[in-house]
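User: Can you help me understand a structure? I only have the sequence.
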Amino acid sequence: MKSIEKDGREFEEIGDTQVDETVAPDTQLNSENMDGDAKKTQIYSSNNRLRHGNAGYLKYVSLVVLTIQNAALGLSMRYARTRDVVMFSSAAAVFMAEIVKLLICILLVMKESGNVKKGFHTMYATVVLNIKDTLRVCVPSFLYVVQNNLLYVSASNLDAATYQVTYQLKLLTTAFFAVIVLKRKLKRWQWCALGLLAGGVALVQLSSAAKETKTTANLQDQSKVIGFSAALAACFISGFAGIYFEKVLKESDISVWMRNVQLSLLSLPFAAITYLIKDPAKDLLKGFDGFVWYLVVLQAAGGLIVAVVVKYADNILKGFATSVAIVISCVASMYIFDFHLTVQFALGTVLVIGSIFLYGYVPKKKEPRTSLSV
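Assistant: Let's start by predicting it. Here is the structure, written out as tokens:
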């Protein structure tokens, strides 16, 4: 160890390290630690910014996809049921949609697990070995199959724009079951929003009741009463099934993709039985052309897209996506289905869109005043 004089200060050289004798050793060590902590903080901040950037990107991408899916599903279902071609079985379409959804969820679970072997092991342990937990999703599995079949009945009897607006009543039924099952308390503006929603849908239904529905070879006798009843029943089923499934998700640490694997596996028997009861003599894939397969994939992807939106977006942005989907459906219906927009229908639609935003409104919390506040 030898002394070195530099800039008027003495240093002691220990190995390859020079120590300033005029500075306390503890201070030097703290400086080194601070440098290390600063580097860690910088790395953490950059990773955090990257993570938030990816989340923001996924949020808006998922919202755009949800908007397109919402608008396209109603229009596509209506178009598929009004084409002058060999008609497919709606029950068969629901069955095939559950198969497609199951395959997509299995792939997502494998990706989540890291590899194929670990993914299958995780699914076996969760779905088969923990059979009691799997059976908990029997109720929503059955209800979602019934709901999807009812939506085809509604789309067969209501024009796309009326169907799209009417189906927003699921917001009212979901709120109703949230209060009953989850014991949630709604704010005053949320109750007002539900009242606006009911009034808007009523205006839309009264407006569409006065219109003549264009018939096709496959849809000679269309009943707006049957269409509205089917949509209303689907809304109640959707509300209860959604709240029940939310309760199941919150009471366990199983991922949403694994829950959807359980959901689809249990939905398949119900969908198969529905098909055998409704269309026993029809071939399963009769009438399935490219457009029907596109509709099957679109319907299967719907629930999964909503799961992504719930994870990354808030209620206001989700409401915005739904509102844009309604507008797209109305405009597209004018050109595709010769839909005539009336003042009454437009007013009802505005009330429905307003109710969606009002229900999802979250007031900003007031910042506490301090002695330094002006």
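Now, to help you interpret it: The beta strands are 2-6, 9-14, 17-20. The CA atoms of residues 176 and 239 lie 8 Å apart. Let me know which part you'd like to focus on.
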